[in-house]
Amino acid sequence: MPEDAPFIKQMRLRLQTRAGHQAYDQHKSTIESVFGIIKEAMRFRRFSLRGLSKVYLEWKLVSLSYNLSASSTWVRSCKAREKSGGKVKKRPEEHRNAKSEASSR
User: Fold this and answer.
1) Residue 58 CB: number of other CB atoms within 10 A?
2) 34, 50, 66, 98 - which has most CB atoms within 10 Å?
3) Residue 50 domain-assigned (yes or no)
4) Is the dihedral of CA 21, 25, 28, 30 positive or negative?
5) Using CB atoms within 10 A of its CB, is residue 96 exposed (0-12), middle (13-18) or buried (19+)?
6) pTM value?
7) Both 102 and 71 in a single domain?
8) Dist CA 61 CA 76 (whole Å)
């Protein structure tokens, strides 16, 4: 890949490789889901304040609320695991999938 090629062309060439596909797939599952949750579940679609410094502040608040929510979910799952003696109950769809896999053997 020529180093003097425009950035967009370099990225297009990278995404055509197998490693590029894998990196992009991982990016979709790790990064883009966060923005989807912020937009849909938290209903944050636009900034309310004007000015770059105020927008930075507002984004920090949105990020903080997302991280607190994720942390509280993690803490609750740890407490549930402790309460059940290290065993976590399966969700109904996981239970159904486990049954169908066992019956297909």
Assistant:
1) 15
2) 66
3) no
4) negative
5) exposed
6) 0.51
7) yes
8) 22
The two three-digit tokens of residue 20, written as one number: 């590029």
Q: Compute the distance between CA of residue 11 and CA of residue 31 in angstroms, rounded to an integer.
A: 18
One domain for residues 39 and 64: no
What ranges in the chain are assigned the alpha helix state H? 7-15, 18-27, 33-40, 52-83, 92-103
Using alpha carbons only, give the angle 91, 96, 97 rounded to the nearest 5 degrees: 100
Note whether residue 51 is domain-resident. Answer: no
Locus of tokens 């740890």: 78
Whether residue 77 is contained in a domain is answered as: yes
Which two three-digit tokens encode residue 92? 């109904």
- List the one residue out of 63, 54, 11 whose CA is nearest residue 35: 63
Cβ atoms within 10 Å of 37's Cβ, excluding its own: 14
Task: Tell me: pLDDT of 92 over 80.
Answer: no
Measured CA to CA, the distance from residue 92 to residue 41 in angstroms comes to 23
Per-residue pLDDT reduced to its tens digit, 22-79? 887 777 666 677 888 888 888 898 999 999 999 999 999 999 999 998 888 888 888 8
